[in-house]
Amino acid sequence: MLNALRHTKAPLLAALLAALPAAGLHAAEAKTPLTIDEALKASAAQHRPVLVDFQAVWCYSCYYMASHVLNGAEWNAVERKAIVVQADADSPDGQTWMKKLHASFLPSYVVLDEHGNELGRISAEQPREKFYPKINAILASGDTLDGLKQKAANGAPDAVADVLEAYQARSEGGEGLAWFAALSSSRQQDAGKNARVQVALDQLALAKARAANDNAAVIASAQKVLAQEIGCQRPYVLDNLLDASARLPADQRKTLLATQRQPLEHYVNTQVLIATPACADQRSAVLASADLDDALGDAAAASAILDRAITQTRQRLGNKLGSDRNLADNLRIYLLRAKRTAELDDYQQQLIAAYPDDYVYAYRYGRNLVETGKPAQALPYLSQAADKAYGANRLAVALQRVKALKALHRDDEASKVASDVLESNGPWFPKQADALKAALKA
Questions:
Q1: Which of 82, 108, 288, 376 is the most exposed place for a label (fewest CB within 10 A)?
Q2: 77: burial class by Cβ within 10 Å (0-12, 13-18, 19+)?
Q3: pTM of the predicted model as reported, rounded to 2 decimal places
Q4: What is the reported pLDDT for 31?
């Protein structure tokens, strides 16, 4: 989930979008909206909410949702209830709306009313049995944040928890804590007895500390959160603790982190690396385990969890890489993290063959070849990727092509690649454009 993007870090993933079912709709209503603005206009006419599916072609969590969740009769029923629109995080429209809605995870499923007000959201991959009860509840009775606050004014503690969790979903820690602090003392005390409220308050404190880059506060808040039952969020919170503690003296850090090993092992063994996982994001759990073991100085344990994940993933995939892209991409990451370089090199070429219709694997393999000093070998793969790249990822591909060409002293070609891409890009994605310009001057 990764704020979108764990170890892509990154969040973060292309989710499946089926066309709106035509049965029972007028012809104009049957047209699938291409943008969120189009969907909101259709929402006003049809009096149906909008479900925005934020995703990206590189998003491993989106691969899971596409293959395992966003299909079948339950998904068809969702499409009858809501106007579903796909928003690509690499497109200008997608990035604009992600910022507007504070959607920092991929995938994110945000339900809007016809005015663009949020009625609820689901972040990161979810098993079917968790996703559909959540999304159907939002579609049936979702409310805006202001509406939730009104219900919380005189409602039960669970109504207060609803507000706090809505702030948490938006990563608005300071705002959520400020709202709770404005409640009466008696209301705070009553709500504070509720387990959901307590977990949400601790999560909001963690979000606030992260936003302030306050490592000491992150450590304190993460420890409080991890001491509670937080289900599938455990690896993400542990990531916060690992990052925030990185500059501590080694012995102090090991003492701090040692208490997390047993809970994480239990989590992995009972909810992740089992036949029917309760938590869909296997990758984050495996990588968090390896990172924790490395931080504790146990290289053998880190290697063991990666080897276990590699073996299990290969068994589930067999020789059919195209059968489950989430698993296929997880295996790539496990091989990379385990530094099984020869296997990874061969495997990346298999992925290019298995998924030829987008830029992702040709780009990644080409980038790897550039980084390992093989620019001439990289160029054909990068050219293949360039033919399919768009938006922000077009600039990323061009950056690697420029690096490869300059390494081969083909500066004129590098300048042509950069100028063509920058011209077609226009004013969008300024950070990526600046990186491309800098590479050209290097």
A1: 376
A2: middle
A3: 0.87
A4: 54
Cβ proximity of 4 and 90 under 8 Å: no
Cis amide bond preceding 107, omega within 30: yes
Residue 387 in any domain: the answer is yes
Q: Work out the pLDDT band at 32, boundaries 50, 70, 90.
A: low
pLDDT tens, 135-153? 999 999 999 999 999 999 8
Boundary residue ending a domain (142, 161, 196): 142
Number of domains forming the structure of the chain: 2
Q: CA-to-CA distance for 174 and 317, rounded, in angstroms?
A: 44
- Residue 377 covered by a domain: yes
Helices 195-211 and 234-244 cross at an angle (nearest 10°) of 40
Q: How many CB atoms lie within 10 A of CB 250?
A: 9
> Is the pLDDT score of 1 beyond 80?
no
Task: Residue 8: give the domain boundaries.
Answer: 1-142
Q: Please spell the DSSP secondary structure of 301-349, one letter per residue.
A: HHHHHHHHHHHHHHHHHTT-GGG-HHHHHHHHHHHHHTT-HHHHHHHHH
Q: Which two tokens stand for residue 251?
A: 């012995």
**21, 125 Cβ separation under 8 angstroms:** no
Distance CA(87)–CA(123), nearest Å, equals 14
In the structure, what pLDDT confidence band is assigned to residue 34 with cuts at 50, 70 and 90? confident
Is 307 inside a domain boundary?
A: no
- Among residues 94, 125, 142, the one where a domain terminates is 142
Question: CA–CA distance from 266 to each of 195, 219, 229, 382 (Å)?
Answer: 22, 22, 12, 42
Strand 50-55 with 108-112, pairing:
antiparallel
Closest by CA position to 191, among listed 167, 215, 155, 220:
155
CATH number of the domain residue 425 falls in: 1.25.40
Q: Which residues pair with 84 in a beta bridge?
A: 51
CA 69, CA 15: separation in Å to the nearest integer? 9
Give the tens place of pLDDT for each residue, 109-141.
999 999 999 999 999 999 999 999 999 999 999
**Which CATH number goes with the domain that contains 138?**
3.40.30.10
Q: Is residue 426 part of a domain?
A: yes
- The answer to whether 412 and 400 have CB atoms below 8 angstroms apart is no
